[in-house]
Every structure is written in structure tokens, then in C-alpha cells.
Specification:
2,3-Dihydroxybiphenyl 1,2-Dioxygenase, domain 1; alpha+beta; 5 helices; 316 residues; eight-stranded mixed beta sheet
Length: 316
């Protein structure tokens, strides 16, 4: 049986401001801050996770907010666009909402779908697209009712330095199905119903530079530890330089850079974000791995305080 990924597990990006990130992704987009922790490799920096009510795989966008960080440039070797799925008949609601919050929006067409494109405060490129598939979110915040809320990822647009090689990996290794071509892009579909539509540029894109406003990596789903280990063995056997399995507390991870220059991760669905917090308290406390717990006071003192808040535009 061919091994297939269900699609995107999470996407991780660099941004400069912790509070402006919370205000945008929770206050404007209505995503739940499901985990507030630190970059395990740089504990002076937050690692913030946003998703649906539980932070299910396929809904999670994560950030390393680094105040004063330099601006990056989106380009080849990166995820170029992060696409979110919204329920049918809600695009007008979202267009009006974004404009009310002074977010510039642009309507575009791709593969017969109308997408609403905009940028977050750091310059990260985002889209909203109506999709039937994928269950609705149960999370409601601010002025967004649950039946209009973002479901999770619709997918992503990959900017590859070597599109043919990236496409071959997605199709022949990850088991994605090629479902169409539309001018500058080729579209692939995974086995899942969220984070399942991946577009790749046909022609190579000029290399980007990492920094604020760019995606650091995209992670793909493995259903459990056994499948995760199988993915690592498979990739290593194909000659990819794959890291050892890394414990990220809420999932296990392996990383490798595919031939189009994009940093890929494969992450396990379990154990999830409720492993160390009650579901109704997710994201409220700074959660630290055991090896940093004795440094909690110092770590907290060095981090800018943040809060999830209803913005003035939603206060009536």
C-alpha cells in the first residue's frame, strides 16, 4: 500500500511583534491561541500556535515572534502563500470584515476558485477560499460566529527553485494526486479534507530571503509514531538528509530540505495540545518543557507580555 500524507500538519513563520501577531490572528482572523510556549532552541523568543478549538492538525499556524527582526523576502525555496478554508457563502463576510479592520484585500481567481488575498502585519501572504470539505470550526471569537469561522488550512502555494523535483516528491513520495494545471501553477491534492490542496509554480521562482514575514517551514501529517518512523526511513532511503526524530512536546518531528529548497517537516498528529493544559484553558499559560521549568522566572521576565483581546472594532 502506498504511503500517503493526509496533508498539512502546520505551517511555521517568522514575525516581529508578539502582540500584533495575537491581535491579527486571534483578534481579526478569530483563530484560537492554543499554545503559548517558547522556541526550544532560543528560549528568549515565544513560539505561538493558533488553530481551531483544539488546534487539530491541518489548522495550526505557528510563529516565532522576534521583536526588531529584519524583514525577509518571499521567494523561491519557501511557502509563498498560506491558504485558509472558510465555509461556503462567507467570502463577502470576510471581505467586509478585513476592510473594516483596514486590511487591504484583493480578489483573485485560481483553478476556478475566487480567493481573497491579503497580508498580515509582517507581510506574510494569506488567502481565504470557500470550501465545502472539512468540518466547520467550533471556535467563535470577537465578531466571528462559529459558522463563519476559518475551518483550517485550505492548502498552500509552494515557491520552488526546482518545480519539477518538488512536484515529483509530492506525487511519487508523498502520494499526492495531480488534479490540474492553471497557467502558472500545477495543483496537487492529498488524502485529507483540510490542508489538502497544494499548488506549485510551473517556472522556478527567484530565491527568497528568510526573515520576518516569511514561512520557515511547512509540516506534513503522520498519523502516529509508527507511520512517522516509516516516513523517516523512506526519505533517508531515497537519499534525503533527514534529521533524527525530535520531540516537540505536542508532536514528534523530522526535518529535511527538499530539492526545490523548501524546508519540509513531517509531524505526528498525536499527542496534541491538550497534553499539558485543560481544553478550556488552552493558550492561557506560558507552557515550558521540563528542562526549562527551573528558568521560568527569567524566561517570563524576558518575554513581552501578550493577551488575547477583543479589538475595538468588535466591541459594541
Amino acid at each position: 500500500m502506498t504511503q500517503r500524507t493526509a496533508g498539512i500538519h502546520h505551517i511555521t513563520a517568522f514575525v516581529p511583534g508578539p502582540q500584533e501577531t495575537v491581535d491579527f490572528y486571534s483578534g481579526i482572523l478569530g483563530l484560537r491561541l492554543v499554545k503559548k510556549t517558547i522556541n526550544f532552541d532560543a528560549p528568549e523568543v515565544y513560539h505561538l500556535y493558533f488553530g481551531d478549538e483544539m488546534g487539530h492538525p491541518g489548522t495550526i499556524i505557528t510563529f516565532f515572534p522576534w521583536p526588531g527582526s529584519r524583514r525577509g523576502r518571499i521567494g523561491g525555496g519557501q511557502v509563498g502563500v498560506t491558504t485558509y478554508a472558510i465555509p461556503p457563502e462567507t467570502l463577502d463576510f470576510w471581505e467586509e470584515r478585513l476592510r473594516r479592520f483596514k486590511v487591504s484585500v484583493e480578489k483573485r481567481e485560481r483553478f476556478g476558485e475566487t480567493v481573497l488575498r491579503f497580508h498580515d502585519p509582517s507581510g506574510l501572504v494569506l488567502e481565504l477560499v470557500e470550501r465545502e470539505e472539512g468540518k466547520n470550526s467550533a471556535w467563535s471569537f470577537g465578531g466571528i460566529p462559529a459558522d463563519h469561522a476559518i475551518k483550517g488550512f485550505g492548502g498552500a502555494v509552494l515557491y520552488s527553485l526546482s518545480p519539477e523535483k518538488t512536484a515529483r516528491l509530492l506525487e511519487q513520495v508523498f502520494g499526492m494526486e495531480k488534479i490540474g494545471e492553471d497557467g502558472s501553477y500545477v495543483r496537487y491534492k492529498t488524502a485529507g479534507d483540510l490542508g489538502n490542496i497544494i499548488d506549485i509554480n510551473v517556472k522556478p521562482v527567484e530565491p527568497g530571503n528568510g526573515g520576518a514575514g516569511t514561512v520557515h517551514h511547512i509540516a506534513w501529517r503522520a498519523k502516529d509514531d509508527e507511520e512517522h518512523a516509516a516516513w523517516r526511513n523512506k526519505l533517508a532511503g531515497l537519499g534525503y538528509q533527514v534529521t533524527p526524530i525530535v520531540d516537540r512536546q505536542y508532536f514528534n518531528a523530522v526535518y529535511f530540505r527538499e530539492e526545490g529548497g523548501i524546508l519540509f517537516e513531517i509531524a505526528t498528529d498525536p499527542p496534541g495540545f491538550a497534553r499539558d493544559e485543560p481544553v478550556d484553558k488552552l493558550g492561557e499559560k506560558l507552557m515550558l518543557p521540563d528542562w526549562y521549568e527551573e528558568q521560568r522566572k527569567l524566561i517570563e521576565a524576558n518575554l513581552e507580555p501578550i493577551e488575547v483581546r477583543i479589538l475595538k472594532e468588535d466591541q459594541v
